[in-house]
Write the structure tokens for this entry.
Amino acid sequence: MSSVPPTEADDPGPTLSRDDVVHLAHLARLELTDAELDLYVDQLSVILHSVTAVSGVVGGRDIEPTSHAVPLTNVFREDLVRPGLSREDALAGAPSAQDGRFRVPQILGEV
Amino acid sequence: MTLAQTAAAGLMDYDEAIERYDPVMGLEVHVELGTATKMFCGCPTDFGAEPNTQVCPICLAFPGAMPAVNRTAVEYAIRIGLALNCEIATWCRFARKNYFYPDMPKNFQTSQYDEPIATNGYLDVEVGGGTVRVEIERAHMEEDTGKSTHVGGSTGRIHGAQYSLLDYNRAGVPLVEIVTKPIVGTKASAPEVARAYVTALRDLLSSLGVSDVRMDQGSLRCDANLSLTPAGNPVFGTRTETKNVNSLRSVERAVRYEITRQAALLASGTRIVQETRHFDESTSTTRSGRSKETAEDYRYFPEPDLVPLAPEREWVERIRASLPELPWVRRARMQQDWGLTDLQMRDLLAADALDLVAATVQAGASAAEATSWWSSYLGQQANARGVALDELPITPAQLATVIGRVSDGSLNTKIARQVVDGVLAGEGEPDEVIAARGLAVVSDDGALQTAVDQALAAQPAVADKIRSGKLQAVGAIVGAVMKATRGQADAARVRQLVLSTLGVEG
Amino acid sequence: MTAGTTAGTAAGTPPTDLTRLTAADLAAAIRSGQASAEEITRAHLDRIDAVEDAVHAFLHVSTQSALEQARAVDRARARGDRPASPLAGVPLALKDIVVQAGIPATAGSKILEGWIPPYDATVTRKLLDAGVVILGKTNLDEFAMGSSTENSAYGPTRNPWDLSRIPGGSGGGSAAALAAFEAPLAIGTDTGGSIRQPAAVTGTVGAKPTYGGVSRYGVIALASSLDQVGPCARTVLDTALLHEVIAGHDPLDSTSIPQPVPLVVDAVRRGQADGIAGMRIGVVKQLRGKGYQSGVLESFDAAVLVLAAAGAEIIEVDCPHFEYALAAYYLILPSECSSNLARFDAMRYGLRVGDDGTASAEEVMSRTRGAGFGAEVKRRIILGTYALSAGYYDAYYGSAQKVRTLIKQDFEKAYQAADVLISPASPVTAFAIGDKVDDPLAMYLNDLATIPASLAGIPAMSVPSGIASDTGLPVGLQVMGPTLGEERIYRVAGAFESAYARQHGGIVPDAAPELEVGVR
């Protein structure tokens, strides 16, 4: 992947290589078949090309980002205990459980 | 370790390392807040509960669950920031730190990234007779992970484990992470400074009432970052991060070890690998963990399920006003109240006797007496037994009682020590020891008069000397009476009686 | 076109086909004793049995629990209790992205196959407390990603107007259930049009509230800053009744707004009784033209005439930044969803693949997600991971959030000149199943008209504007209001629906072709 983020001057915009998609799929913990990789590389490049117009339209202008239509601040919950789940309910959907805990495959250092 | 062992272990001698290289430290301390509930849900935070009994859809990251911010956790974070002399943000947000790990149910941690709640503070730390100002970069809020137990490997460590068991009781417990700016210029005392900082921070947090700060229970955790640069070179070297530092002693040892390890590598021309290391308690060494060669891409973005925090200044000021007396302010006040010199104060701190003295004064003793007892006699007793002062089996209240008995004349200093010994030996309360051992000062004039008469009768020549005006000779009679009463007489009263018996002025 | 059969029957005689009644009429029938809740629920369960092979709107039919809920309403009535709400006893279909305790929830994905949530969404709780009977969970594009319900891992839903066609997406199941008379009420979620576009192509009504107007707690998240739960029905009044049950502040959802529930039922009645004389209605210049089917535009223009005839002042408004709406949306959504979907990792719930005793946790996570997620989901996760990755945040997600501000400003300026804005809700009528499934970008264009309102967080709804002359399929009119402007849009939608019904002798849903009834 290009290590330099795209700028207005970049044309026709970034594309994703197969290696890029492999790297991203790893970051997202998605195992993809070769066929999927090939398909997604093509499809994503097309999509990416069409969506990167946004950096052009705002580039350089001082605009505040919007995340909520009705801006709220300071929404808090009081520090009071609320009923949670019983251990049984918590573990009910677990693919594997043992000794009241979720059992997961070996964690090799960083997962 | 001998020099030869040091070298064989791939380490450089510490003194040599410090001479050739300057250490730069960065300390990250995580505090588990003592709130009743978790950061983003209403599950309890009690330590030691059965696995997965303090969980809910939110902290288990079930589909559809959403976070809600614990107001008290925010208040505690602001308290911490204020106590560390930080600026409290007027507007800040939570952010998602995205990475996959089974102990992190959402596979992102809701934390704060470029908008922490507190920035730019400092903590003044007493080290080796001086004060070091450790600058604080930031303090921010985040949540704790679940606990994993690795099964099937040889030592319960990750490597070689066949599977792991996850308990999410701890997942979501509020944390505040306190990050220092690079600590430079400490040279040989770097390990000491690190330890002193964590100690001072621990005491501060404890006084704020925001956490029980138990390193042994994980409510206070330290990660020590260390890099070396050739002596005098201002450019920072590559740093390592050492985790799993579970005690104050380990903080000091981890820093020391890393200095010797990195120095040996640098001296041999080897590049330091930027990595996470783990501290091994049993050997006081650090071991390589995950490589951080390529910095993890956490893909931070503002948490869209939460709204910004804009702590009103009135709220912040109310919190500031409610801060307890901070440790250094308290110490300064005590020193002044008790009329102690800086040296005396330092001795008290070094002996970790401050709270004991304060409690003894609280129980009615004078500061001078309390200080004297805890510093000298009890200090000796603690050393002899190889324990800390507060582990001695005598309470400030008991000591205050003994001091009181000396003040009211029922004991003298020498006997008082015997009473203290009795309490230390488990013989009971001071008054019980006095009674059992018959240590009370003889204040009955009748009994004293009898002893005086006996002593005078036994030393007629001395009696004559006194009658003829040689007042120094009184001492011999007083001594004899003291011996006869096993030291339990009030010497001054005895002297009076001797003189009056002989009809001598003096 | 058949005349509307939604009118109530003569007092005293039980309605013959309970599935043809509106929710309002069903509730009234229960209150007056003309029909029991259980009868009504049974009638709908029978209808589901009859048509589901053809329509496939439902992923799960909760027969037992629905009947229990219905019976509870009947018992309460027998005791003389006041009805729990104006919709007590009325059946409803719930999009399978909203959790209901004890009932399977899949989000249309294999990765959650068999998962039974142990808790209720706030919306679910409100519905149950209101005495609404939840018939089952409806089909959707996987994790609400799509515009046709073809991305469901459990097969597509078919449009009751033409079974070879899509019912829209992502909430095609809910819309189809309404159009097929399997339920009079439904709940959907709308992130970029997933309520409004299906409503448009199935000839039903669906609304997206102001962002934060309805709680998201218990709704499986797609894009947190865009998702909203909304009411769906065959009439505007029914939609309004449902809106009032589900709206309101929820302390469990920190983004839910503190404003009171909008009085949309009254607004509809006012619209129907008093019309919209004097209201200023803005036609958005950018939401017509290229990409819009001619039959859609024709129907839209006819709707404009109806509104003008009803006394509204029609003006044109210019929203220049809408051109960038699609692009901004397809940067924001994938970014947020890539993070929201990270929790599906085979560790605590859902599918686990490849745990053969030697694989690591990482391998099992990757294999499970590879096997359990469909193509569209994977594409968006990769896109989102890219948009957020180191060095790209400012250019992509950061920039897209700024475009949102520009779009919001376009709306604010438009609302100075107009009370509500209108456009077609979908650029095209229902296309054939399979037509666009291999062309993601073409699929994304279905949301052209609905996305701007989502980005700005304003309320918007789709009400049928008629039947397209070129395809003979339903067309939807989108009505958009300013922030917290629900009452305005419901008033206009209610007025339009009445005017349309007067003109055409009935409302669009009643003109749907009869479905071949089979027995499962």
